Amino acid sequence: MRKVNGFTTLTVSLLLVSILVAVSAFIGKVLVSDKRIALNEIEYRVAFAAAEKGIAEAIAELKVDSAATAVSGSVASSSAQATYNVTMAANGATPGVTDIVSTATMDNGAQTRISVQVAESSVLNPNNSGPAAPLIISGTTPLNGNITIVANPNGSGKGVPVSVWSKNAVNISGSALTCGLDEYTNGGCTTNNAYSYKQGASTVINSDIVANDPGFPSDMFDYVFGEPDSAGAWKNINAKATAIISSCTDPQLTGGAGFFIIEGAASCAFDSIGSASAPVILLVKDSSVVMNANSKFYGLLFSYDSNPSDASSYNIKVNGGAEFYGSLLANHDSVTLANGNFGFIYSEDIICDFSGCDSSSLGSGSSNPFISLGVIPGSWKDW
Fold first, then answer.
1. Is 382 inside any structural domain?
2. Do residues 152 and 217 share a domain?
3. How far is CA 89 from the centre of its chain?
4. Listing from the earlier edge strand, what are the strands of the sheet with 288-291?
5. What is the pLDDT of residues 334-361, one digit of tens each?
6. Is residue 12 part of a domain?
7. pLDDT digits (tens, 9 = 90+) for 98-153
8. C-alpha distances in angstroms, 42 versus 82, 109, 114?
9. DSSP 8
């Protein structure tokens, strides 16, 4: 009987030991599997972080150099290390779109790939090739003094010049002349080569002066920037600005090309701003504008009144000897162009800078301060 009891005890003991060994082996496999899963997760996260860093670095590089084609680097953690290589190439189907592909590789050869598309967008309304005329006023436009206006040669279509575009009347007094750029640069505008003019008792107004236009934009902000005037639109525009400043004598205005917003200035009086190779977009908000005598402005100036229906509108005044290359726009009335010699010259090269066209001296891409880069929604892929 004792022998039977001993055999039973031994059998049960061996059975328990076998169960313990099996359980231990199972637990060991589970722990090893969990460790492998955790390590794979860590490696995946490191690789994904590296690929994401490559995308961010590529976008940053394109903002500095729009011709950049590749970037590379690495990301290291205490558990893993990954290298990334990114290519940037123009999309063959859509102009202004760049395809970015970032590939991150682990030391063990595992890879993660992310791709995204970014698109260029201009500060100005993409639906316009540029302002239709060198002088665009949402009100009455007085052409007084010895003023010369050089028309946009394609303001109302290919080969259809526009010198002035006005919501209300265009009043000509003094000695006003409008003409083409060739005439202006080769001997100057005269009554013999002018489109429209006022000379003594003679007044000739042709189709280059568009007055009392029922099709004039009801929202000049939308016409200029491509977004209806709203708090959200202002948030977007502020984000695109090179700087938001409170004075038209700020040194930044003469420091190179850029988009500047003047806000909080009682009056915006300035001497020369910008240059032919470094023009500016100047958005003057709720302030009178005074262009001092013998000064030069290169770019686009938009005088914005947040309440244009208010009787106390902000005035625009250009003094004698001043030259304006580009386009002057106002969403309000009360424009006074002073007596004396001054000119508004539409410059296709300057307007081209703002849209980054091929002939632009500033080039395309976000190396141009008037062009921004944005990720196209839905283009992000990480599979």
1. no
2. yes
3. 20
4. 267-270, 288-291, 316-318, 335-337
5. 788 876 788 999 998 898 888 766 555 5
6. yes
7. 999 999 998 888 889 999 999 888 888 888 778 899 999 998 888 887 889 999 99
8. 11, 15, 18
9. H
Looking at the structure, tell me whether residues 94 and 169 fall in a common domain.
Answer: no
Looking at the fold, whether 143 and 95 belong to one and the same domain comes out as: no
Question: pLDDT (tens digit, 9 = 90+) per residue, 263-303?
Answer: 988 889 999 999 988 999 999 999 999 999 999 999 999 99
What are the residues whose beta carbons fall under 8 Å from the beta carbon of 32, sequence distance 6 or more? Answer: none
Has residue 149 been placed in a domain?
Answer: yes
Burial class (CB in 10 A: 0-12, 13-18, 19+), 81: middle
Structural domain harbouring 273: 135-346
Give me the helices (H) in 108-192, please.
Answer: 181-185
**Which strand (E) or helix (H) includes residue 330?**
strand 323-330
Judgement on whether residues 36 and 112 belong to the same structural domain of the protein: yes
Residue bearing tokens 């106390």: 312
Ranges of H-type helices in the chain:
2-64, 181-185, 220-225, 231-240, 348-355
Number of domains in the chain: 2
Residue 99, Cβ density class (10 Å: 0-12 exposed, 13-18 middle, ≥19 buried):
middle
Whole-model pTM?
0.76
CA distance 225 to 127: 9
